[in-house]
Amino acid sequence: MRKLGITRKRWLLTLHLLFSAIMLGVAIVFLFLSITAANTNDEGVLQACYTMMHMLAKTTVRYSTIAALATGILLSVWTPWGLFKHYWIIAKEVLTFFFIIIGPIGMYWWTLRAVTLVSSERGHAVLDPDFIVNSGQLRIGIVLQIVSLVGLFAISVFKPWGSRKR
């Protein structure tokens, strides 16, 4: 496979970092919106928080994840790192798979469920057991999303565990 020159590699790495930063930024926004939703008595604010989270899950989370995944694969394939040459890259691949389940898939369904429950039960959603369970799952998902993203960043910086022996 053809390898990238240093300038192209830097541009691809810049794009990868940009999309990864967007993913982390959106996860932090989800955290703030979920805290706001958990601490409000205003049903309009509750509806707005979950609607914004769902809109972000449908757009920004999905597209930034696809772009970060694509640029990460290209970086691995077009540089000497490879897809399976180093333990730290394999760890990132496993963590990325976990993130995709929690991020674009989990966030989409949890926020859709929250919007549906808040819309259908004006003023009573916070008392509905389904809403309480869904909100808890959403908060846990947000925390796991942030932890996995920070883990991905840390692994990228420290590159622990070295190369696999052939």
Automatic annotation (TrEMBL):
What UniProt keywords apply to this chain's record, in alphabetical order? Answer: Membrane, Transmembrane, Transmembrane helix
Origin organism of this chain? Cohnella nanjingensis
Transmembrane region(s): 12-35, 61-83, 95-118, 138-158
- The name this protein goes by in its record: DUF2269 family protein
User: Which top-level group of life is the source organism from?
Assistant: Bacteria
Q: Does the keyword Transmembrane helix apply?
A: yes
- InterPro entries in the cross-refs: DUF2269_transmembrane (IPR018729)
Keyword Protein transport on entry: no
